[in-house]
């Protein structure tokens, strides 16, 4: 993936960025996505829900430059051409988890196959990050399938310059015979505003409603 360095002397967001990077301000936004169409399509086609959610989230963040902004290893500010999903898998025996990643592919079937291969390879691992050579350009995604929530916030103290988004989902809930998924987005205010967070949620909802177009 390519990394484009931002010229901060001419960047229209420089004043906002400088203010919030100094303040070390991040925020989270939580909503309930209506996923009835998505869930039924997944089951109809014999797929599993978690990789479908990973695909949906990664597709949306890759639409918006604001979610792909980061510092590279040289400390330069810029944005990636694409992000890859890093996600958690739960180990039933130990009740611990590992974080692994799967390369994003625009074809959902291909992505789903790669996801299953990665999970099969690393399921039961004792390492936190068992898959080597994790890329820099990642969106972190996790799911807490045991409980629902109306708000979720991570406290990141050590690396206040972490700019990439973090997405957390909860347990599917049914209301009036319709399925909903609580989803929390955490971002750094230096690169994302309420507008961007709103676009993320709106685009996730739209893509979930259009599941028949990408789940073949």
From TrEMBL:
Any Pfam family hit: CAT
Keyword Repeat: no
Any one GO molecular function term: chloramphenicol O-acetyltransferase activity
Keyword Protease among record annotations: no
Catalytic EC class: transferase
Catalytic residues (UniProt): 189
The enzyme's E.C. designation: 2.3.1.28
Keywords, sorted A to Z: Acyltransferase, Antibiotic resistance, Transferase
InterPro entries: CAT-like_dom_sf, Chloramphenicol_AcTrfase_AS, Cmp_AcTrfase
GO terms under biological process: response to antibiotic
Catalytic reaction(s) noted: chloramphenicol + acetyl-CoA = chloramphenicol 3-acetate + CoA
Family according to the record: Belongs to the chloramphenicol acetyltransferase family.
Subunit structure: Homotrimer.
Function field: This enzyme is an effector of chloramphenicol resistance in bacteria.
Protein name: Chloramphenicol acetyltransferase
Organism: Shouchella lehensis
């Amino acid at each position: 993936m390519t990394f484009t360095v931002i010229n901060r002397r001419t960047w229209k967001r420089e004043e906002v960025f400088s203010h919030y990077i100094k303040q070390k301000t991040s925020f989270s936004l939580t909503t309930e996505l209506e996923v009835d169409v998505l869930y039924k399509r997944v089951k109809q086609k014999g797929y599993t829900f978690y990789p479908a959610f990973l695909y949906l989230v990664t597709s949306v963040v890759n639409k918006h430059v604001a979610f792909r902004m980061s510092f590279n290893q040289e400390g330069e500010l810029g944005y990636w051409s694409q992000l890859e999903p890093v996600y958690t898998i739960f180990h039933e025996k130990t009740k611990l988890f590992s974080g692994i990643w799967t390369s994003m592919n625009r074809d959902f079937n291909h992505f789903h196959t790669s996801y299953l291969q990665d999970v099969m390879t690393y399921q039961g691992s004792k390492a936190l990050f068992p898959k080597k050579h994790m890329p820099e350009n990642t969106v972190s995604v996790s799911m807490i399938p045991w409980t629902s929530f109306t708000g979720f916030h991570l406290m990141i103290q050590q690396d206040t310059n972490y700019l990439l988004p973090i997405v957390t989902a909860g347990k599917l809930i049914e209301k009036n015979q319709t399925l909903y998924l609580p989803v929390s987005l955490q971002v750094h205010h230096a690169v994302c505003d309420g507008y961007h967070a709103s676009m993320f949620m709106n685009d996730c909802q739209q893509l979930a409603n259009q599941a028949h177009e990408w789940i073949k």
